[in-house]
Each structure stands twice: as structure tokens, then as C-alpha cells.
Amino acid sequence: GDQIDFGQSMAIFDGREMQIELEQIRTEIAQQKGIHAGYLAQHNAHAANVAILEMQRLQAKERLVQQRLDQLIVNAPIEGVVLASPFANCEELPIRKGEVIFELAPIDGLEFELLIPQAEIRHCEVGMKCVLKLEAYPGSSWTGQISKISPTSEIRGKRNGFVAKVAVSEGPSIDRPGLCGSASIEAPPHPVAWNYLHRAVERVLRWIGF
Fold first, then answer.
1. 63: left (phi over 0), alpha (psi -120 to 50) or beta
2. Whose CB among 36, 42, 105, 198 lies 3.0–4.6 Å from 51's, allowing a Cys bridge?
3. d(CA 163, CA 147)
4. Distance (Å, whole) CA 44 – CA 107
5. Helix 16-41 vs helix 45-70: crossing angle, to nearest 10
6. Residues linked to residue 133 through DSSP beta bridges, in sequence order
7. What is the dihedral angle through the alpha carbons of 161, 162, 168, 174, rounded to the nearest 10 degrees?
8. ∠132-138-140 over CA atoms, to 5°?
């Protein structure tokens, strides 16, 4: 839930091993310079050229290690809010390639996630208008449209359904992610009897095998 600014430092990786490697490379470069100078004094052009090539190889390696050292500080790519930080307040903890260390969300665009029950998913589609309410903000509501619906069902808590993304167009700003609430989706009009009876009818049809 912490707000972060663009470019703000968020994490620093341990670069001690790379720093030692960089010092070793620089020592080797200095040695090669001395070797090169010695070959020049001996008028050994071939050996001097070999020493230059070795220096160039070491200098390329030096630039690569220095570039990696410069990337050890993780800066925020956007201005926004931290949604999740699995490694918060951790020190000297190994992180494997592909692991997520931060989840960020921009503060200029509010997005909700809806869990649509399996029994209702066939009545929902991208573009439908939604009205959302949060338990932490009684009396307030947000209006938006479904922008995406997951093609597969997911388990959230103890409920199973399809996750839909809702891009909000109207409503108060929120700086605390992870809040729960309820939503209503405006579907095409149906007869009044269908609105009240379709769930019961569908349950009976499923029960008898249709």
C-alpha cells in the first residue's frame, strides 16, 4: 500500500562478489599494460599486438561487470502504489530468476478485479458496464466497464469463478489496494420473470443433467 515516486529506489542487490571480480579484472588489465609496454621495448610487434587483444577482451569484460553493478539498484519505473512485496524487509536472501519482488500499480488509472461465479459467466462479456462498491468506503461507488475476462476459472479464497478486469471511469480515488466489496453488472434487458427465476431454473437443469 506504500506510495512510490518515479525513479525511487526500492531495492538494492548485494554486489560484493561482482565488486571483487571487477577489481580482479582491473588488476589483470594493469598487468597486461605492463606486458604490452615490455614487448614494445623489445620491439616484439606480434607479442605486443597479442597483449593489446587481451587488454581489449578484459576491458569488454570490465564494462559488462560494471554495467551489472550499475543495475543492482531497483528503481520504480512508474509513480504508483505497491500492491505486493514478498521480499519486504529481507536482507541477504537469495532470489531466483523470474521471481517477483514487487507488484506496482499506477495511481492515475484505477482497476478492479471481479470474481464472476461460474453459473453467471455465460451472461457476462467484455464491454459491459459495472457498478462497484467497497466495504471500506460505505456510500461511495465506482463505475466502469469490463475490459478483460480470464478464459479459465480460478479459486479465490473459498470461491471459484472467472476473474474479470474492470477499468474504472468514475469514482473517488483509492490509495489502498486489496479492498473487498461487491459489484453489479448491467446485462442486456430480460423479462422480469427471467431475472427472478433463471438461477433456479438453471440449477434444476444442471441437477437433471441438461
1. alpha
2. 36
3. 11
4. 65
5. 160
6. 182
7. 50
8. 50
Q: Which residue has the cell 571487477?
A: 22
Q: What CA–CA distances, in Å, run from 122 to 102, 149, 161, 192, 202?
A: 34, 11, 12, 19, 12
Map the chain to HEC letters. CCEECCCCEEEECCCHHHHHHHHHHHHHHHHHHHHHHHHHHCCCHHHHHHHHHHHHHHHHHHHHHHHHHHCCEEECCCCEEEEECCCCCCCCCCCCCCCCCCEEEECCCCEEEEEEEHHHHHHCCCCCEEEEEECCCCCCCEEEEEEEECCCCEEECCEEEEEEEEEEEECCCCCCCCCCEEEEEECCCCCHHHHHHHHHHHHHHHHCCC
Take residue 186 and report the three cell numbers written for it.
448491467
Residue reference for cell 500492491: 83
pTM: 0.47
CB 82 within 8 A of CB 103: yes
User: 123 is written with which cell numbers?
Assistant: 451472461
Tens-place pLDDT, residues 9-40: 777 787 888 889 989 999 999 998 898 888 88
Tell me which residue has cell 468514475: 170
